[in-house]
Design brief:
single chain, about 400 residues, eight-stranded mixed β-sheet, 22 strands, about 25% strand
């Protein structure tokens, strides 16, 4: 058992667990808001942004999809503008490309119109397009109608994370996996790492992403949710000239995933995906990666079975697209008829850390909770990279308030 003894010398004021973009943004915001605050970041990997941050489509989201008034809506729209400014200031690769959201079936038209209304409520400029106008932006894309969202872009989120780490002035410890935590509300927290080091802090901030619920429980707090990992598989388009920018389908409001879309990245390549299939490990980037303890924990959570029961039809389609390139190609051809199975080159997958409640509810907003001497970020999947700067400020505000009142 790790213990905090009386008369201890603290190693830092705030200890951040997790070196992804949210954890590093939090460290950056703390030192900017309260200069002189000692911050240590523990990251179990050998470098920053190795999981959700470094394994996504690289899109700077506009915020058009999210419920007005939600944290996602507020932070994505604000964060997108701040992210572009941050990238420009530090010379990080980025581009504001705009994107199309395309309806390919008549049943999608009311939902597309709903997105127009939601965009206006969220203060996002949107242009409505008829079928013939789609070709102005994407000559190879076909649909019944579309909307163009001009504030969407792409950037190098790994580069952003590295810059946040450098500019924060925090001590970043890589290869430092958290094994045990001893929290004493009257004293602080002590963390034991896999290397055998003990780090003592006044306040702990949990930005552990795929492992955030486990870190919360190590702290002694009940997160009242579990992370259920969903793998998103991508392909690269062998003929990138078929796509100029970003092309998305109209999302299904019953599920928190956007569906297969087309993204021209900052490298000039076009990425296609992701789908959404259950991962057999929290870092299960392919079907071969199975971790029985993690899989068992997922299966033991009642919410996992509720998801399966409610969404089995949707899930069956996603699984089919995972094991069949032909089925994946069929999904892409709804937007891009010219594509063939030979155009799809397998690419690196990502895993989404999706918070699920006991009753099977998929948490659809950012979730930040506090405990004694602790702040936990418990749901921060997409668009968390886009929104990382305002999320970091909010988490930093809570951590500093906890520090003041501890």
């Amino acid at each position: 058992m790790v213990q905090v003894s009386t008369g201890i010398a603290y190693d830092c004021d705030v200890l951040v667990v997790g070196g992804g973009i949210v954890g590093l943004s939090t460290a950056y915001a703390i030192t900017r808001s309260a200069p002189g605050t000692r911050v240590v970041v523990l990251e179990k990997e050998a470098g920053p942004a190795r999981h959700q941050t470094g394994r996504n489509s690289g899109v700077i989201h506009s915020g058009i999809y999210y419920r007005p008034g939600s944290l996602k809506a507020q932070y994505a729209a604000r964060g997108a503008a701040e992210m572009v400014k941050f990238c420009a200031e530090y010379g990080i690769a980025h581009a504001v490309t705009g994107k199309l959201i395309v309806a390919t079936e008549r049943s999608e038209l009311p939902r597309l119109h709903g997105l127009v209304q939601r965009g206006r409520e969220n203060g996002i400029p949107v242009r409505e397009l008829g079928a013939a106008q789609i070709a102005e932006y994407e000559p190879e894309v076909e649909g019944l109608a579309a909307i163009h969202v001009g504030t969407t872009g792409v950037c190098d989120f790994v580069g952003v994370a590295r810059q946040l780490a450098e500019a924060s002035g925090a001590e970043i410890r890589y290869g430092a996996e958290v094994r045990r935590i001893d929290r004493r509300p009257e004293l602080g927290v002590a963390v034991l790492t896999g290397a055998g080091d003990v780090v003592r802090a006044r306040v702990l901030v949990n930005c552990a992403g795929l492992h955030c619920d486990e870190v919360a429980r190590l702290t002694g707090d009940d997160p009242e949710m579990r992370i259920v990992p969903f793998r998103g598989e991508y392909y690269t388009l062998a003929r990138p000239e078929l796509v100029r920018g970003l092309v998305y389908p109209v999302p299904d409001p019953a599920f928190p995933f956007l569906g297969v879309h087309l993204t021209r990245g900052i490298d000039g390549g076009v990425h296609i995906g992701p789908n959404a299939v259950p991962a057999l490990a929290r870092e299960g980037y392919d079907w071969r990666t199975v971790r029985p303890r993690e899989l068992g924990a997922t299966l033991a959570w009642p919410g996992s079975w509720q998801i399966a029961r409610r969404h089995w039809r949707y899930g069956t389609g996603e699984l089919r697209r995972s094991v069949s390139r032909r089925a994946f190609t069929t999904a892409v051809r709804r937007l891009l008829p010219a594509v063939t199975a030979d155009d799809l080159v397998p690419s690196a997958a990502g895993v989404r850390a999706q918070a699920v409640l006991r009753d099977g509810t998929l948490v659809d907003d950012f979730l930040i909770r506090e405990g004694a001497r602790a702040v936990h970020v418990l749901n921060a999947p997409s668009p968390a990279a886009t929104a990382s700067l305002p999320i970091g400020r909010e988490v930093a505000r809570r951590a500093l308030e906890t520090l003041r009142t501890a």
